[in-house]
Amino acid sequence: MSLGQQLAPHLPFLRRYGRALTGSQTHGDRYVRATLEAIVAAPDEFPREVDPRLGLYRMFQAIWTSTNYDETPENMSAGDLDGQESIARARLARMTPLSRQALLLTAMEGFTPEDAAYLIDVDTSEVELLVTEALAEIEKQTRARVLIIEDEPIIAMDIETIVRDLGHDVTGVAVTRDEAVALAMEDRPGLVLADIQLADDSSGIDAVKDILAEFEVPVIFITAFPERLLTGERPEPTFLITKPFQRSTVKAAIAQALFFDQATVPVI
Prior knowledge:
- This protein is α/β, with parallel strands linked by helices.
- The chain is built from 12 helices and 5 strands.
- It has helices spanning 3-7, 11-22, 25-41, 52-67, 83-92, 97-108, 113-120, 124-141, 153-165, 177-186, 204-212, 247-257; strands at 145-149, 169-174, 191-195, 219-223, 239-242.
- Strands 2-1-3-4-5 form a 5-stranded parallel β-sheet, with helices on both faces.
- Helix 2 packs across helix 3 and helix 6 (97-108) packs antiparallel against helix 7 (113-120).
- The relative contact order is 0.13.
- Pfam families: PhyR_sigma-like (PF22233), PhyR_sigma2 (PF22029), Response_reg (PF00072).
- This is Response regulator.
């Protein structure tokens, strides 16, 4: 099997990581593209001694570390940096970037502490400390009123508990598109958590479209099929949670979405 065939199944999830790290589909996908271009240009430099997925993220980390927020990948000009990334710089200055990466790699991408340590070049013993630091710092800086769009009662209750445990308020729980829009208009939220399929066979995506037509708000989508919304071929969500989810994944996604002060999910 060629290297390209080995890496292909992991690309949607690398896009998820890149988008969450940058707060932007556009910039996250550009980092992924720069990573693939680097692999094509120098395939012998790809780390063959590890699992292909781990090697792919390692290459991405090399691109991210070499550019970060002060520079940009090839063919990404400084003028392309959008508002939410500029806003995030002030917060980043108060939090070690490694903390943020450790949080996303473990809580969202599911890497073990050992693998995360390999990816960000620290000792395994440091990873847990970095994750704790990231969550504590982001939670200090971000508070929001959250609308939950979810038709499964148990899942909705679980999400509501997580949201409240993080110190946020819940404006309501909607189970249909119309109910979601009505709740959003009645009590404007600062964050939306939206399932894709709703109780009356309506779409959470359509509900979000309706809400975003009225005002900007960051959105996190919840789906059992994330790869369908991580193709990189069209406007897609920046923040995505996979069902079934871990509580730590929801916490990481909420913290990262609120890291940016304006809506970051493009209309689909």
